[in-house]
Amino acid sequence: MSRARRGVRLAPGCRLDGGKEKDGVVVLVCPTGKVQLNRMAATILRLCDGSRDRADVVAEVVRGSHPRTRAVEIMEFLDVARARGWIDET
Amino acid sequence: MSDTAATNHAATVLQFVNNASSDRIPGSTRVSPAIGGSWRRCALDYALDPARHYSPTIIDAAALAERRDQHLELLQVASAEIDWLYEYIAESGYALILTDATGIVLYEKTDATLANTFRSSGLVTGADWSERREGTNGIGTCIAESRPIIVHREEHFRSSHIGLTCFGSPIRDPAGALVAVLDASTLSARDPRGGFGHTMALVNMSARLIEKCLFLHHFKRDIVFRFHARPEFVNLQHDGAIALAKDATIIAVDETAVHLLGAASRTELVGRRIDQVFDIRAEELVEPLRGARTELQPVRHAQLGRRFFASLDYRAPVATSAYSSASGSSRVIRFAAAEAPKSPLTLEELAGEDPLMLRNVRSAHRIATLRVPVMIQGPTGAGKEMFARALHAASDRAGMPFVALNCAAIPESLIESELFGYRSGAFTGARKEGMKGKILQSSGGTLFLDEIGDMPVELQTRLLRVLEEQEVIPLGTETALKVDLRVICASHQNLRAMIARGEFREDLYYRLNGITLELPPLALRTDKERLIREFLAAETSDSRPAAIEVDAFQQLLAYRWPGNVRELRNVIRTALAICDGGVVRLRDLPSEVRDSDASSSAPVVTGQSDSSEREKLLRTIRECDGNMSRAAEQLGVSRNTLYRRCRRLDIAPQRPPGKP
C-alpha cells in the first residue's frame, strides 16, 4: 500500500486570529467556538496550511523550538485538533 | 495459659527446629519461612530454650537515657504519633511500642487495664525485645527480617509469649537503614487476619509517617522534591520524597519514591541528577515556583513517561554565587537561583493590573521602610501572607528574618510559648534547651501575625506590652530582652466588631493598625483574564502546545474563586496536566469550577463580595462624614441606590453630624 502524502490544513471555517498585539494572544476561531492558544500551539496550527503532512509539521516544530519540546506532545495536540474538527488531513 | 499448652508448644518448636528439612510442624501445619527461620536462629544461634521462663532483660536507667538522647528527633516525632494512634485504637487492648534498632523499648503506650499483664510480659521501657533475648517476636523478628512482620500467638518461640500477637513495622533512616521498630501487641487477638488487620494498617501508616518526618527533618536544609501520581497526595505522607543537593544531584530518596519510580533500590537513584529522572525543565522548576514553593507541577518520568505531580520545598537559603561558578551548567545555575531565601513575589507581581491592588502597592511602598505596623484585611485565600512577605521583601529589613505565626492554626495554649519563647525547663516536656519565641526570632526583621483575631485576650495584653516596651520576657524567666519589632498582622475577621463585643483590645488594635491594606478576593479582581493567560503561558513555558477552549476559559472567569491566585494557578496547571494534547476543555476543570453557574457571571454577588462591598460603602460614607448624598455622588450611584444597597448590606442609615 502506498502512503500518499496527506496534507494537513485548518478545517473550513477555522482561522487564526490575533498575535499582533503586545500580549501575543492568538485565538483559533472556528464554527464551534474560540480557542485560546499559547505560542507553541499557534506555531503548530500556522504550519497546517495544506503544504505539509503531519510528520512534516511535527519535524518543523521540533526543529524550530525549545530543545525540551517533545514530538509526542505535538502529535497529541494534532490528534486532539483533528478530533475537535480544527484541522483536516486530506 | 496452661502449663500443658506451654510444654506442648516448646516441644513442637523444638521438633520443628530439629527437623531441618521440613517446613511443617507435627499436625502438618505449615510454618512460614520467616517464623521457621527465626525459630532456628533462636534455638541454634542464641541457644534459647522455648520452655524456660526468662526474666525480661531491662537496661539500666542511665543506658536508657543515653539511648533516648541518641534518638531525640525520633522520639519527639514518634511519641506524638504513638499517642495519636493510641487514642485511635484506645481500649482495644493494645500496647504500642517503639524500640531502637537493637530492640530496646524507648517508648510505650499501653491500655491501662492491661498494663500489668503487658508489664509482666516485659513490654516496658528499657526492655530488650531482640530475638536474642525474647525469641521470635514482632519486634526482634521485624529487625532480623528488616520488614513488617506479624507474629501471632504460637508463632512466638518462647512458650511464655504465646498469648501475644505482635505486629512490628520497621522505621528507616533516609539511607534505608532500619533505625526503629513500631510495634502493636495485643493479648486478645484470636484471629490474626481479622480485626488485627486494621491495626496493622494503622501501625504501618504511622511508621511511614514517622519515616517521612525523619526524612524531612534530616534534609531540612536541602531541597526536597515531593511527588505522587495523584496531585492531592503530594506533600502528604504517601508521596515520594527526594532530597537534592544544590546542583540537583539526588542525595537521598525515601522508600515510597523508590516504589513510585519503579526503581530496584535507593542506590539506583542516589547520585543521579533529578533531571535525569524527571523531564524537568529548569524554567518550569524555577519560574512557577517563585514565591509559593508548594505549588504542584506536572512532571514525567524521563524514561517511562509516567506522569506525576511534584512540589519543591526549598527551605535552604543557598548562596548561589559560589556554586554557580562551580557547576558551569546554565540550567543548574537557574535552578539554584530560585533558591534565594524566600524570594517571594514582588508587590508589583502580586498586584497585577487590579486597581485596588495597585493602590495597596502604592501605599505599601510608601510605608515599606518605616516601622509603621500594617494590618492586612482580606478574606481567607486572598493571599495575605504572600502580601506580607512581599512587603517585608520591599522593606529595608528584607535581609532579616520574616517570621510568621498563624494564630488560628495552632492551639491557643501554644500561642504563648510560640510567641514569647521559654527558658529550659519552664514546663514539663519542654525542650531541654528552651525555645526562642517568634518575637525574638523576628527581631530586626518582620513579625507576621496571621489571623490576629484568634489571639486570646490575655495574650493580646502581653503582646501590647511587648509592642510598647519593645522588649520580651520569655516564659519562666524574669529578664526582659530588647527586641526591634516590626509587626504586620492580618485578619479575615472584622476586628472592629470584635472590639465592640469585647473580644479584641481596642488599644492593641490601634497599636497594630498603622495602616490598613485591604486585599480583594480573587473573585473581585478585574484582571482575571490576564492572570489566566499569563499562567497558561507560564505553565507551558511555550515549549509545549497548549490551548484552552473558550467555554473552559469563560468558566474560569465566571467561577467565584473563593480561593486565591495560587488556587487559580493550580487549577490551570492541573488542567494542563490531565488534558488531552494540551487542549484544556471544560471537562478538564475541577468539578466545582465546571459546575458553577456561568450565567450568574455578570454581577458577582457572593458573601465575600458582599462583605467587601459593605466595607467599601461604609468607608465612603465615613469619608463623607455620613452625608449620603455626597457618598452616593462619590460612588457614582443615585441616593436611592445607595439606600437600597445599605439596606441590603445591613448598614444603618447615617445622618450627617449636627443634624439629629
Quick structural gist:
Chain A has 90 residues and is an alpha+beta fold. Chain A has helices at residues 39-47, 54-63, 71-83, and strands at 7-10, 15-18, 26-30, 33-37, 49-53, 87-89. In chain B, helix 4 runs antiparallel to helix 8 (196-218) and helix 26 crosses helix 27.
* Structural category of chain A: alpha+beta
| β-sheet strand percentage of chain A | 25-35%
Mean pLDDT of chain A: 83
Q: Give me the number of helical elements of chain A.
A: 3
Q: Would you report the number of β strands of chain B?
A: 23
| Order of strands, widest sheet of chain A | 5-1-6
Distance between the termini of chain B: 91 Å
Principal-axis shape of chain A: globular
- Structural class of chain B comes to alpha+beta
Task: Name the pair of protein chains with the most residues at their interface, and give those residue counts.
Answer: A-B, 28 and 23 residues
Morphology call of chain B = elongated
Count of extended strands of chain A: 6
C-alpha Rg of chain B, in Å? Answer: 31 Å
Query: What percentage of the residues of chain B does DSSP assign to strands (E)?
Result: 15-25%
Q: How would a textbook summarize the main sheet of chain A? A: 3 strands, antiparallel
**Main beta-sheet strand count, sense and barrel state of chain B:** 5 strands, antiparallel
Verbal overview:
In chain A, α1 crosses α2 and α2 crosses α3. Chain A is built from three helices and six strands; from the N terminus they run ββββαβααβ. The longest helix of chain A has 13 residues. With 660 residues, chain B is of the alpha+beta class. Helices cover 41% and strands 15% of the residues of chain B. Chain B is built from 28 helices and 23 strands. In chain B, the strands form seven sheets. In chain B, strands 4-3-7-6-5 form a five-stranded antiparallel beta sheet. Chain B has a five-stranded antiparallel beta sheet with strand order 10-9-8-12-11. In chain B, strands 14-17-20-13-21 form a five-stranded parallel beta sheet, sandwiched between helices. In chain B, a hairpin with an 8-residue loop joins β18 and β19. Chain B is elongated, with a radius of gyration of 31 Å. Classes of the chains: A alpha+beta (90), B alpha+beta (660). The interface between A and B is medium-sized, with 28 and 23 residues.
